[in-house]
Protein: ABM domain-containing protein
Organism: Microscilla marina ATCC 23134
Amino acid sequence: MLDNQLSQLQEVVQELQAHCTNTEEGMLQYDWYVSDDSTTIKVLETYVNSEAVMFHFDNYKSFASRLGEFREFVSLEMFGKASEALRQRVKKINVAHFTMISSLNKLK
């Protein structure tokens, strides 16, 4: 990704984050990261439950084409308990699901 593309991506992401902040009560975290060589983007998202994730999938759609100019979706990793409805919704994409067996989170 070129430097000017990174700044354009940052603009779109900031607009998306503002939109999500105003419309998604169930979203707790939405952090975007880029690798040092600007070839890989990782997004860390945390939600209160599966319904909030599915709401985000629909709520995010108006930004999808703009984000698609800068990145290609490769995979999804889901951590924690996912409802059957969410599991069915993500079934068609490259998803790995991880169920928690233990937690130590000092951020709370």
